Amino acid sequence: MKASIRPALSRHFQHGVSMVETLFVLPVLLVFILGIIEFSYAYRAKSTLNHAAMAVARTGSITNACKPAMDRQIILSMVPLFMDADRSPLQLSVNALTPDLVNRINIATQLDIISPTLKIFDAFKQDLMLSAGQIGDCGDKSLKPMKLNTVIPNDNLRFRTSATKVIDGRHVSIQDANLLKIKLRYCHELVTPVLDRAIELAQRLIPDSFFGAERRVFLTACTNGGGTMNPAAPFQRRFVVLTADAIVHMQTPVMGRFLDQ
Question: pTM score, two decimals?
Answer without folding.
Answer: 0.80
